[in-house]
Amino acid sequence: MSSYEYHEFRALDRPLTKAQRDAARALSSRSVVTSHSAAYNYSYGSFPARPVDLLTKGGFDAWYYRASWGSWALGLRLPSSPRLRAISRYASDGVEVTRTKGSVVVVLRHEAEPEWIDASDEIDELLPLRDELIEGDFSALALASFASDRDDDAGVTLARSRLTDAQEALLGHLDIERGEVVLAAPRAPRAASATRSKTPKARSGVGAEVTAMFARLEGALTPRR
User: Fold this and answer.
1) Core vs surface per residue 1-12: b (16+ CB within 10 A) or e
2) Of 207, 197, 65, which Cα lies nearest the Cα of 123?
């Protein structure tokens, strides 16, 4: 089997400038560059740049990579925010985290069995993972960490009730069986019940006794004819 590599980059937040498009084209004579993407196919040689640099400096927000010998990667540039402070705890052989001024770059990696591939459309089904990460849903990172260091006797637990379409697609790229994923949605806190002050009811025995007493007093005070 001859070797094959595919790189695709996407600009999601804004179109590439002319300078950025020219820089992307200069990387390879086999590049296909538009205002929002750049793709590179290699059947020999290798990519002449660090893909993470194109995410941090080249104007791109996503990077997808596949090779015929089984290597796979998905890189996503995320705008820095307080929600991403805990993202480094997912760093592993399957998750790389790079922090730069104003952004956080995460790269998911996996090694699979060698196969001949056509990866030209595969990035689209995974792009929604970027929005999930920006919103603080780190399920994709948990899946990638699990895939890189899986225990045959254990699965991965996600704090959610269902997988999104992008997460379902990611399972296939990471060679994770659906049965290895345990969904455990966090329970919503119970609404505080309103405290009602109730006047305790008089006991039936005491109430009857009081009624009888008033009846006797009324009879005693009524003048006889």
Assistant:
1) eeebbbbbbbbe
2) 65
Looking at beta carbons, which pairs linking 80-84 to residues 24 or more positions away fall under 8 Å?
80/104, 81/134, 83/134, 83/135, 83/136, 84/133, 84/136
- pTM to 2 decimal places: 0.80
The amino acid at residue 25 is: R
pLDDT for 225 equals 46
Radius of gyration from C-alpha coordinates of the chain: 32
Q: Which residues contact 103 (CB under 8 A, 6 or more apart)?
A: 56, 77, 78, 79, 80
Q: What is the pLDDT of residues 145-166, one digit of tens each?
A: 999 987 766 789 999 999 999 9
**Residue 22: per-residue pLDDT:** 97
Secondary element (H or E) of residue 156: strand 156-158
> What CA–CA distance (Å, rounded) separates 209 from 40?
96
d(CA 69, CA 113): 7
How confident is the model over 55-87, as pLDDT tens digits?
A: 999 999 999 999 989 999 999 999 999 999 999
Question: d(Cα 28, Cα 221) in Å, to the nearest integer?
Answer: 116
The Cα angle at residue 141 between residues 117 and 87, in degrees rounded to 5: 140
Q: Strand pairing partners for 71?
A: 111
